[in-house]
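dumping the sequnces here before i forget
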Amino acid sequence: MRRAIALVLLLATAALVTTSGGQEPRSIGFAFGFALIAAALAGDLFERMRLPRITGYLLFGMLCGPFAANIISRPMARELTLVNGLAIALIAFMAGLELNLRRLRPRLRGILEIGAIQLGLLYAGLFSLGWLAWPWLPILPDATGATRVTLALLLATLVVSFSPTVTIAVIADSRARGPLSELVLALVVITDLALIVLFTLTMQAARWSLGEGTTEDVSLLARLAWEIAGSFAFGGIVGSLFAFYLRHVGREVTLMLLALCVVLSQVGTLFHFEPLLAALAAGLVVENIAPPDGDALKDAVERGALPVLVVFFAAAGASLHLDALGSIGLIALAVSAVRLALIRVGGYLGSRVAGLDPAIAGLSWMGLVSQAGVTLGLTIIVSSEFPEWGARVQTLMVSLIALHEFVGPVLFRAALARAGEIGKMEE
Amino acid sequence: MTNPPDDRRDPSSDSDSRSGASAGGGAEGGARHGHPRDRTGSAADTASVTTGTRGRTRGGAPDAGLTGVDRAAAARWHASRELGGHDPLDPAFFPALSPADAATDAADADADGWRQPAADDGRAGVSGLQRVTRRLRTQAAFGLAPALAPALLFVPLGFLLGPPGLNLLPAHALEHLDPVISVGLAALGVFVGLALGRRPHWDARLFVAASLEAIVTVLVVLAALLALLQAWQMPITVPAIAVALALGVSASASSAVSGGRPGSPHNLASRIADLDDVVPIAIGAWAIALIAHGGFWNAWTQVAFTLLLGLSVGVIGWLLIERAHSVAERGVFVAGSLALAGGASAYLSLSPLLAGLAAGMFWNWSPGRADVIVRADLQKFQHPLVVLMLLAAGASLQFSLGALWLFAPFVAFRFAGKLAGGWIASRLAPSFAPADLGKYLLAPGLLGIGFALNMHQHLPPAEGITLLTAVVIGTLASEGVALFFTPVEERA
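..and the predicted 3d for all of it:
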């Protein structure tokens, strides 16, 4: 009851403040405070309904965002996304901390097999669908021959992609630990790595088929190698320094953790490193090479993660283009249904082939539905490079992300609950 | 009127108030506030938030709403070395606080149930430099552990890192720090509100004396600088009274000599320094409203709106903070409340200090133990916020003729105002205000810089920078001036 009263009072205060007309450049603090409290309350409400908290954060952002109640205006939503870099780095770092390679090693082969089956099936199914339905898709209906093949491949790559961010967030939020959490996390990270490589190759193919490729593009693979290997190296170095700090200084760990994420997200991008990969590598180093003594890091992660996750997903919800969903909703629904079916089939086949515990492997598909940051990032690259038809791809993908951002966490949390892993992080 | 104020205090509320973080000099104390806590080996104050010992004295249910897991997490949280804890800079730079001193301080703290070391007791064999650092270290407010004024360290560091120096903190980075400064100001306001204390600890007569002292300082600086601004015909685009008022408000902040036995002049002056920020914050809020919104009466309306906003944040926080399901969630609510108070004020061009003050006062005087929880949680944000504000202040400095012209009268008339204000307050309330009260309040602390940063956000750029520079270097100079005027009790 107290929470309901607080939420009502908060909404009334926010409405009063926004209608009083302030200075937009100074809205970040207000938007941050409002989103932090209100989204946390919405997340709590969802948890009571046995739904993921992050779905609550997203829904709150969507309802209060510029496309609905407009309490968080468009400039405010843009300001809130300033935390994105920090949030993605923190989330990936947490993923690294959860991946204990020694524990994973016996199951690595099975994980790779499930990943290969999922990727192969999704690629084959979505490419076939895209190629066959191409004349009816509102992208570039006149494309034929090699162009149509490469564009269908590119679209399939985007639609296949998963969301490490949401996966980690759901695990952290529900304080889950166990074989399913580790399996899904490893699957998502490995397949997304493969997808980033595949995306680069299909983008190159699309350029050539559209006659936009140049001889300079030969360096693309070198650039890709630099990005991936460099990101891991950079993250490894930063992670080692952080592990050294934890072991020998160990003070103000929350502050240092946030500073680490700022370095990984901001400094890394100056050298074209991928923050997600760098932060993942940093977490892997800390967990697997120099694990800290005591609970200082665990406490710092607990304290730092919640506000960052709340604001990150509330901002994501406020930035969701509901208008896109309205304009292309039916096609998006159809594509989403096919993707979901393929993931389900892939999960079934994978669990039979991989030789892992079938009860766990059979649930893994439920953790692969989410889509968010990585997909959006790849979509934006397509949109900015091919503005003519890329914008239409973006509309379709944004609609898909909107759907999967809501459905994915609900499914994954249900799977974690079924596997009995929720709340196990504390044990 | 006859009983010494300390005799009437509720020990639990007293220690509550004193364990708080601070504005003014208090914030600086708070930046190192962890010293005694770490020395005594347990985070007793903050742990009591979890164990509910203080909650019982306040009538709140101990650990209400916390599960066993939450309690364990809370205990880990409080026991871990975290923000607001021991500051490694202090022993590294200022060895005056040796292990022997620390042991004595801890004994002092235990003896009176407070964590504040006693003021300089004149122990033999200390060097001149040690005396200076120890003297500086004793300046704190709001019952915090005395610490070396961080303005002396971080303002020059900010200047070195800023555009005039190495440019590692360029102008666009300072713009990004603006929201953080607003939130930091709201946090200072909350500290001031919390430091007022609860009844019976809260004493109206002390509050009147403290406010009187502050008003006299504001009036002296305001009148002098208004006259000088008009005499010099400085080229400013805002009304001269707004600039003079801003300087007066910035001059009124003080961080008293802390420590001393209960009821001693030290102790009372420290308490007066806790209370003398309330009226200047209100005047400052009015000045900001006047600058940003214009109109004498409209400014009062905006002040009322700021109070409403702060109270609203206070109520929201009060409803949520005590019943948080976990320590992490509680941190979210505390941080959200601060961001809301600071952010909404900045968005509407109001005073974050006043909004924070209203929220802090509400938490202080509302049922339950929200004040204790907020204070404990804020201490974790305090150090980085204070450091960021001081670095931003240092990096924003631009030495101009105008700033240098304002600096000297700011220091001189602040000195005069503090002495006059202290004298008048002690005449009106001789039973509890020491005769040389002004000398105790000469050290300015951090809140004056906070006022200036706030004014800088709303004044036109040229005037804002001039005012900020004058106040910041004036604050540093006033810290130096305070070293040369030792109150009678200290000399004894």
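Residues 322-353 of chain A form the longest helix (32 residues).
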